[in-house]
Amino acid sequence: MQRDVKIETLIVMSMCVFGALAVTAFVVPFEDDNTRIFFVGLAAVLVSINVAGFFTVWKASPTIIDEIFLMTPDGRLLKHYTRRLKPDQDDDILAGMLTAVQNFIKESFEEAGGKLKEIRFENYDIFISHSKSIVIAAIISTKKPEKLRTQMRLVTEDLEKHFGHKLTNWAGDKSDLVGVDIIMKKLLAGKYR
Amino acid sequence: MELKELLKKVVLLGDGAVGKTSLTARYVVNKFDDKYIATIGTKVSKKDMQLTKPNLIINLRMMIWDILGQKEYSKIRTASLSGAQGVILVGDLARPETVKSLEAFWIPEIEAAVGKVPTVLVGNKCDLADKGSMAITVLESIGQNLGYPTFLASAKTGENVENAFATLGEMLVAEVVASRPKGAEELPQTLSEAVDFIIQDFCAQYGDLEKAMLIVQHQFEEAAVDIRKPSKDAVLQALEGLAKAEELSLTKTVAAVNLEERQRMVILAKG
What we know:
The complex is a heterodimer of chains A (193) and B (271).
Chain A: H1 7-27, H2 33-60, E1 65-71, E2 77-82, H3 91-108, E3 118-121, E4 124-130, E5 135-140, H4 146-167, H5 180-188
Helix pairs in contact in A: 1-2, 4-5
Chain B: E1 2-13, H1 20-27, H2 35-40, E2 42-53, E3 56-67, H3 74-81, E4 86-92, H4 96-114, E5 119-124, H5 134-146, E6 150-152, H6 161-179, H7 191-206, H8 209-222, H9 232-249, H10 252-268
Parallel strand pairs in B: 1-3, 1-4, 4-5, 5-6
Antiparallel strand pairs in B: 2-3
Helix pairs in contact in B: 4-5, 7-8, 7-9, 8-9, 9-10
């Protein structure tokens, strides 16, 4: 319920409450200063509550994921989910090239060890989560990805648990992936656990 | 009629400048510039094929990895080879040393990285080579020794390019076809069994179980199919609706084949 409230609505509400009380405090001719101070104090308290509420909702709101690529570590695209239609984009080839780029970076910085976890390009961030037989790459154009990182790790672990045995030495039969959509759509909606 | 969707990774290998990229360009959908081979060592392309087998249609998607041919870049190559399920080995018939290196260098390299996988040998630039040349003899002898199909092709004229990829495609699906149960297919006996079979078959081919069930439910309601005691007429009417849905999700051909198969099943069912 809390997540359904838009940030813009809260900002407008805060401004309205502050405005109404400020007008009341300064424009209305109160008989004594105590009443005026009371109204100013009330305005400050209500605005603080609104700001705190705004911050809580903002923190709890999910990061909007533009696209998710679910791939095998060798670069085959298992599933692709997107919020926008991109007719010029070939998802299979993009997934392959993304893997090729990861291979290139991994080999170029071999001494550092590990795997590529993030790519930044202008307004786009690509977060990559790996397990033994699954790679998830999420493209986002909004900030605040801390929760997304955790969720992607959880999804990767869960997919590995459920589908890992099928995807190790995967023969390429897409019917092995029944049920993946349920998990991935939760991630896309920012509601994974 | 069962429909399978297969996704396979295929790697093109061979010495530098033997024509791997040109062969790929002849055959596939490209979305990225060739410069990526020089910059990151790899370029990925894809090709879809449809293979029809008895009671089985296979939609095969080959992801074709064109990898830098310079032998020195072994680490990038090994990483790109990972998970390869098929290989096209290319030699230049105008340069016999590139054909010899298939056996001396590339085949051991592949076997070390991914083991034995379906492989075809391609002698490119056959338009420049004389019949019975040393390079052709060597290539055919390698193919014969290892049991690999061998093609004399030309990316320039297009000769045998399609054949080489198509043969590899057949080899890639051979395992799937062989693993299917042999002998007479057990067909449902009663109308209820036939309906159950059709629902399962429709859902499996549709992919998204949830959506598929909604479509089945809708079409059965439209045709007034009583699932506990179905009538042949009502089921046949529902099949038409399911076929229309499959025309959108699969292809018209597959939908028509499925419809015919299911109609036959319903007509022959007892009850």
